[in-house]
Amino acid sequence: MTPQIVPTKPIEGQKPGTSGLRKKTRIFMQPGYLETYVQATFDALGGVVGKTLVVGGDGRFFNAEAIQTILKMAAGNGASRVIVGQNGLLSTPAASHLIRLNGADGGLILSASHNPGGIDADFGVKYNIANGGPAPEAVTDAIFQRTLEIDAYVTLGTPDIDLSQLGEIALGGMVVQVVDPVADYLALMETLFDFDALRALFGSGFTLRFDAMHAVTGPYAKALFEDRLGAPAGSVVNAVPQPDFAGGHPDPNPVWAKELMDLMMSDSAPDFGAASDGDGDRNMVVGRGLYVTPSDSLAVLAANAHLAPGYAKGLVGVARSMPTSEASDRVAAKLGIKSYETPTGWKFFGTLLDIGHVTICGEESAGTGSDHVREKDGLWAVLLWLNILAERRQSVAEILTDHWATFGRDYFSRHDFEAVPSDAANALMDKLQGTLSTLPGQSFNGLTVTRADSFSYLDPVDGTTSANQGLRLFFEGGGRAVLRLSGTGTEGATLRVYLSQYAPKGADHHRDTQEALRQISDATATLCDFPDFLGRTTPDVMT
Ligand code: G1P
Ligand code: ZN
């Protein structure tokens, strides 16, 4: 079978970020578009001759077609093997694991994460490198450069192949290896967690509701919780991946996982509630009557991880993204281990994990993970929580109350202002940046600023500095506000305002979160002139 060389044109302005290239599905569906991007990726890697790749996606609209295109192109470009999930499905953490497990050269993950799916919704392609993590900027830049000059792509003019059967299929000179998307991932989880203790927990009548949000974790969660660990049938809901996620946003937060939140706040709440996103890397954790913020979740997991076999020796260090609350720093200090504060985005954790400086890391945006893969991992976080509950035999609320009594509580909330005109958002950030040095000592709504800066990060591995990673305002009394513009939004700009307030040991730890943050929120709105720049002071989403 001779490869076909198909002429194409450069694609303008299609710059991949750390989450890969995210666009409207119809853009990806334009003839030759996906092909051109994939060829640019292969070219930027110096070609894929003789290489092994992992390919899979979250099952959203266009996933199946895109995978067939990629397989034919990999074969046409001389790859030796592609490991692909049955029916084209792989969660992002499972793909990361398969790359590492098989010593693959890299992988292509098809997803737009927590964003909606469908012909009029979102699609994405992300390249991960041999360590299993997202491609670093040098690689995404090279891919981008190549999209600007490319003039042809290579493929094989063969019919689609059947990805519904496990096993190996020859495609030209390449082997397509169709694997069970769940099996290897489950085997990895079994090395980290005490499955006997988890079975005993469910055997004792412990109840769980896991909401897969019609996305990729459905089959994983069914196999794990119901088949292996003995949770009653029906514990996992919305478990069949749908191309349009049943019309919803597969985003595990109190807004989009409202059905789960309502259940957990009701009289019929099970002991534990959890949800994951489109591609399975994010998580939400809810106890009976209590939502656990991702920042608190990271801290609780860090403080208790030693209760799970995979972390019994203790942690080396803990990392959090800068906007995430300082709760995990307090745990690290008590454990006598290092804590790291990195810019937003998982790639900064990847290097710290690779050199063995941290074991657990997390972001306020519902991402938590460890050194077992190089992506955040939703089901991993749920399993670690369950393992802790199995050992401590306390409720989520009791564990949180106890945690706050030991470390104090960091009230935390993120306020998002969406679809802000880009000029307004940039003007606001520019003005704030320009006045930072004048702020300390000034009071706003009765609250004095003690320190203000623009966060910049020096990577301890490659020595590069990432500047302008968010503007930080510290207030008297342990309050903090962080402002940054989203790097993943598709419509105008999204201004994220991260608010936190520390309530030390002995203070009231059972206040309403928004109430506890009101003064900081008001002071920030005044200080930044929200009404002037945004025309409003009320955010669209508060998580
Ligand atoms: C968002 C989250 C960030 C996460 C990223 C990719 O990015 O805030 O924590 O790493 O998605 O999942 P943002 O839109 O804020 O740039
Ligand atoms: Zn995701």
Please tell me the overall pLDDT. Answer: 96
How would you classify the helix and strand content by structural class?
alpha/beta
| Overall outline | globular
Distance between the termini: 53 Å
* Percent range of helical residues: 25-40%
Features:
TATA-Binding Protein; 7-stranded antiparallel beta sheet; 7-stranded mixed beta sheet; about 550 residues; alpha/beta; Alpha-D-Glucose-1,6-Bisphosphate, Chain A, domain 3; binds zinc ion; binds 1-O-phosphono-alpha-D-glucopyranose
Protein model, in words:
The chain is of the alpha/beta class and 543 residues long. Helix content is 33%, strand content 26%. It has 3 domains: 4-180, Alpha-D-Glucose-1,6-Bisphosphate, subunit A, domain 3 (Alpha-D-Glucose-1,6-Bisphosphate, Chain A, domain 3, 3-Layer(aba) Sandwich); 185-407, Alpha-D-Glucose-1,6-Bisphosphate, Chain A, domain 3 (3-Layer(aba) Sandwich); 409-542, TATA-Binding Protein, CATH 3.30.310. A hairpin with a 6-residue loop joins strand 22 and strand 23 (465-466). Helix 2 crosses helix 5. The longest helix is centred in the last third of the chain and has 15 residues, at 378-392. The structure holds 1-O-phosphono-alpha-D-glucopyranose and zinc ion. 1-O-phosphono-alpha-D-glucopyranose (G1P) is lined by residues 19, 113, 321, 344-346, 363, 365, 486-489, 496.
